[in-house]
Amino acid sequence: MVFLNLSTELLILLSVRSWLVHGATSTLTYKVTDPITGNPLQCDRCPPGTFLRASCSSIKKSECAPCPQDSFTELWNYIGRCLRCGVCGRNQVVKKECTANSDCQCECKQGYFYHQDYDMCVRHSECPSGQGVLTKGTPERDTVCGICSVGTFSDISSTDQNCTQHKSCSDAGQQMVLKGAVWHDSVCANCRDPKDGAEYLKEIVPAFFIHHKIKIKRLRRMVNKLPSDDVRKQEGTLQLSFSELHSRISSWVSSATPVQIRQLPVILIKLRASHAGEKLQKKLNGIDKNLLKLCHIGNDREVDLNETLA
Questions:
Q1: Which of 18, 59, 92, 148 has the greatest number of beta carbons closer than 10 A?
Q2: DSSP type of residue 124
Q3: Distance between alpha carbon 193 and the CA centroid of its chain, in Å?
Q4: Where are the TNFR-Cys repeats (predicted)?
Q5: Is the distance from CB of 173 to CB of 162 less than 8 angstroms?
Q6: 52-97 pLDDT per residue, tens
């Protein structure tokens, strides 16, 4: 995308109008009155990269001079000074430096594209979790996203990441205890060394909160209520952004016990995020069920949701 400054556009417009009225040949000359005789004269215009230092007369030709540094003329002209080189705007970088016969050309800097509706450079769109990048953004075009196809997933928001293939549990000699979705990978278990179902749920909890949109005030309250042995981890949540909250959740998950993980759906439901809480509980129940079915392992630490809410 090339951005031209206003003076350049005006000069181009005037030249085009002149060409339409007087014909193409007249763009190389202009009319003046001879200061000596008072008669009309046709004077030569100055070529691009120069300006008119002195007009012609009956005894001399037009006198042209080179454009000083940081100025230019792009067209045959008879202006008394060159145009000042343009300056790239916000979120733009120089694509081509200004020369004596052409203005600088600007384009959106990396990570931005020119949005015609706003007439400015704006950030490339991020493909949300569950979608991958089909076409990366350029200075002229926004990112193009697409929903992950069957067997693939994306668990982050990104401007450059494609969907990733779900891992195959059988290839590693393991059992699938949770089938992959568009927003999380498959979860595998080694039946010779099984873990609590909540330990497997840990693998998808950070992605769960990225994919399921929870209002920031509610998410802050949830983070503040996360069960933890370290009270300091729960301090200062009122001003945290989404990315900071997700980082806090990931940090908590890495050290949380299975019992604490199992309390998470209940916390969500109590905070009136019932839809998210029930979905997370369903994932956990599915893992527990598959552990019992595939590995013949029950979980005597499972929390009954109804009893917890009572």
A1: 148
A2: P
A3: 42
A4: 66-106, 107-145
A5: no
A6: 999 999 899 999 999 999 999 999 999 999 999 999 999 999 999 9
